[in-house]
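pinging the channel bc i need a second pair of eyes. not urgent but kinda urgent?? the chain im working w is below, pasted from the shared doc
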Amino acid sequence: MANEPTFEDILQAYGRINSYIHKTHVLTSRSLDQLCSANIFFKCENFQKTGSFKIRGVTNAVLMLSPQEAAKGVATHSSGNHAAALAFAARMRGIKAYIVMPRSAPPVKREAVIGYGAEVFFSEPTMEAREEGLKKILEKTGAVPIHPFDDFRIISGQGSAALELCESVGKLDAVLAPVGGGGLLSGTAIAVSGTSPGTKIFGVEPTAADDAARSFRAGRIIRGTYPHTIADGLRTNIGSLTFPIIQQRVTNILTVPEEEIIEAIRLVLERMKVVIEPSAAVAFAVLVRHRSKIPGKKIGIIFSGGNIDTSLLINRLRTSCSKQ
């Protein structure tokens, strides 16, 4: 197997999954363009099946299982979006899904996973606890593990979002994508490099969960525990398969503080009438904060998902508005 998926792998993944997923809209906003002095193209994976981009990679992985593998079911650990996507894809293929979720996962995401028919096991909110829970399930069931990001099938499927973006709007000066484990960012980097080689690719993450940025600067993986960022989908550490791809193909990884993530959600809601989850808001927040570091005028942003705890949204927006 090659050291990383190729552009051809992403094309093949897209051909495999495109009848099972939505080709999501690319939206624009004149007022947000003016705010950032740019022409911004928002790839709206918040409108995707299960509410996030995760269904792309998971569908690719599940469809690639042999009949013998599929009969044993699939398993993973996830704080929400990957879990929901795997549960949905498993139901689509008619197989079992076993999910380890941290107890801290947002209720909206827990309910979605259960609603899609997965068998859910809760763990403490640490990577060690999640991995130990998954190990026990694999030993008991013989299910096939589908990793949230460190899986070439996942990376190839995730890259299809950027492939659609580039096909829709043509050559971009820069593309911004959030990074937790790195499946979306690494897939985006391969897809954009193959479609538009001159485009700069930026990863984005919360300052409160900046392991990818620190790892990128250090040239080695630096791990940490990040329970305090509102962007729950980005609390995961960068992966061993995704990191080399990001090192080779990504221009920079930029970070943004929590209050600016909240402000980005508010701006998108007010100006675009679109609901995004905090992890999805990080890219736009980074563009506002670091505009001088991002070259060109034509910029793509991947809104990674829309699965937000509405009570959290209301409380945070109320606090944000009261400070103005």
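so The mean pLDDT is 93. and Strands lie at 26-27, 39-44, 74-77, 97-102, 119-123, 144-145, 174-178, 200-206, 252-256, 298-303. — does that match what u expected or am i reading it wrong
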